[in-house]
Write a structure and sequence with these properties.
single chain; mainly alpha; Arc Repressor Mutant, subunit A; Serine Threonine Protein Phosphatase 5, Tetratricopeptide repeat; 3 domains; three-stranded antiparallel β-sheet; about 5% strand
Length: about 375
């Protein structure tokens, strides 16, 4: 059995030497269903995710599902696209463990190579590539290490697992619980309380997550209007990032600094940070970060009253982030866009458009349920 591979530029899907050519929206729909395999999506979910910037007809999803089923019939032993009556559609993945290599058949060097690939894909923001490796563990003959097994649940949107699982150590999940609350809660004052509760337990976290929390706090304080705390946090975070000597962390810090500069109306400072960040991205093309800085460049254009360019850049940034298949980054990006529109009140039409996308994401990933569950799980504030 071979790997399923995807050709985004040609809208082709390959498996075991066979290639199926799809239309652009057929390809996008299949990719989304495959990424969320064994999960059920409503028609509204699919319309919002695949046709987010369009106005499709009521029959659009059904017609595309019908055509996909016909074109993919030869692969029905791998997966089927099933109708879930009264709800929508689900891509059902059919495991075939009897054909898979056992991990101990292959040498340690091979497993290490796979882990290095995961680390590279992670750093470059290539979520789809990470998911392809994960989905084909049996074929390749390796087991995902615990860190990436949990991380992939996070980036693919399996958020309910983090509040419902009873087996993983709380220290391993704390960082994710904070981010789930942070990205789904528009009220930054509430998130600050959650942040303080998580900080009290941070000794149980891996050291890297503790460092990331310190960098995350910059935008968190800025979103809450705590300018002095945000600037103090910049100084702390710079010391951490300088010690790590990581371009990924450097871009992460610069993204947080950009949010602070925009929200505190330091427009020229924000544009200068974006310029420096895009210079780094010319040599290290990290797609998540490229999408984020493109989006923030669009927000700067709003402050320059260049509305047409602002709209284009924000839409472009969101599509780049969406293409990385990192669900949390998409949610957080939409959250930031809506916060900007709320504060600066400059484009009601685009605000309404992104509010609809937010509402669809909220329904799909059960934001209210997640937040209530997280508040019950975390230790109470003092």
């Amino acid at each position: 059995m071979g790997l399923i591979t995807w050709s985004d530029d040609k809208y082709e899907v390959q498996y075991a030497g066979e290639t199926i050519v799809l239309l652009p929206k057929e390809y996008a729909l299949l990719h989304f269903l495959f990424t969320g395999k064994n999960r059920t999506f409503s028609r509204e979910n699919l319309l919002d995710r695949v046709w987010a910037l369009e106005e499709p007809t009521d029959r659009t999803v059904d017609d595309h599902i019908y055509r996909l089923r016909k074109k993919l019939q030869k692969w029905s032993h791998l997966f089927t696209i099933d109708t879930v009556r009264g709800i929508g559609y689900r891509l059902t993945w059919k495991q075939q463990p009897q054909q898979a290599l056992q991990p101990d058949v292959l040498n340690r060097g091979f497993s290490e190579s796979i882990q290095k690939m995961l680390t590279t894909y992670h750093g470059m923001g290539m979520g789809a590539a990470m998911q392809t490796l994960s989905a084909n563990q049996e074929v390749l003959g390796f087991r995902m290490d615990p860190f990436y097994a949990m991380y992939l649940r996070f980036i693919t949107g399996d958020f309910a697992w983090f509040v419902e699982d009873k087996t993983a150590p709380m220290g391993d999940k704390l960082f994710y619980l904070f981010h789930l609350y942070h990205m789904t809660e528009p009220d930054s004052r509430k998130t600050l309380d959650v942040y303080q509760r998580v900080l009290r337990e941070q000794a149980a976290m891996p050291a890297t997550f503790q460092d990331e929390l310190q960098v995350n706090a910059i935008a968190l304080y800025a979103r809450a209007g705590e300018w002095e705390l945000a600037r103090q946090q910049v100084s702390k975070a710079r010391i951490i990032v300088e010690g790590l000597n990581s371009q990924g962390f450097t871009l992460f810090l610069q993204a947080e600094e950009t949010i602070l500069a925009i929200l505190s109306d330091q427009l020229e400072e924000a544009e200068e940070i974006i310029r420096r960040s895009k210079e780094i991205l010319l040599t290290v093309p990290m797609q998540r970060e490229l999408g984020s800085f493109t989006l923030m460049q669009g927000i700067c254009m709003y402050r320059r009253e260049q509305y047409a360019k602002a709209r284009r850049l924000i839409d472009e940034g969101i599509e780049v982030i969406r293409a990385t298949q990192f669900v949390p980054h998409l949610i957080y990006a939409i959250n930031n866009i809506l916060l900007f529109f709320q504060i600066f009140d400059c484009d009601p039409e685009w605000e309404n458009k992104y509010q609809k996308i937010w509402d669809a994401l909220s329904e799909e990933y059960q934001f209210d349920y997640l937040k209530k569950s997280i508040l019950c799980i975390l230790p109470s504030s003092i």
